[in-house]
Amino acid sequence: MRRLQHLRPAQGAKKGRKRRGCGLGTGNGGTAGKGHKGQKARATVHPWFEGGQMPLQRRMTHKGFSNARHAITYQVVNIGMLNRFEKDSVVTPDLLKDAGLISSRMKPVKILGHGQLEHGLTVCADAYTASAEKAITEAGGTVEVLS
Predict the structure, then answer these.
(1) What is the CB neighbour count within 10 angstroms for residue 125?
(2) Residue 144: its pLDDT value, please?
(3) Is 135 domain-assigned?
(4) Do 41 and 82 have their domain in common?
(5) In the chain, what percentage of residues exceed pLDDT 90?
(6) R_g of the chain, CA atoms, integer Å
(7) How far apart are CA 31 and CA 138, in angstroms?
(8) Whole-prediction pTM value?
(9) Long-range contacts of the stretch 82-90 (C-beta < 8 A, 24+)
């Protein structure tokens, strides 16, 4: 009985690969099946090579620099939205996330000065506008900048 490890393809079913450039004994002649001279007979031609014409990547313009990839994008909260928190409470980014005022705890938070703050709060955020700082301190609260 034949075993699984003894199975092999039928005679002539598999053909060996064509070994180019291995001398006259390969049956490909002196040019190894590449014809005579020319660019394709000598070495590989890269797909982006355009025959000496100015390549596409050098024809395209490259102007300027954009800081958009490196700019800090803040999640903004107006001070008018902070009235929902109780008087003298500490407003942290975790509390803002639970209240649904910001979308992520990982991104920095900036407090803007739009609206009126009716009572004093301790506000912890990454950045403030000047009007927001003034409004919070005038309402009897304090401002803490997170690092």
Answers:
(1) 23
(2) 95
(3) yes
(4) no
(5) 63
(6) 36
(7) 90
(8) 0.56
(9) 82/111, 82/117, 82/121, 82/123, 83/115, 83/116, 83/117, 83/118, 83/119, 85/121, 87/119, 87/120, 87/121, 88/119, 88/120, 88/121, 88/122, 89/121, 89/122, 90/121, 90/122, 90/124
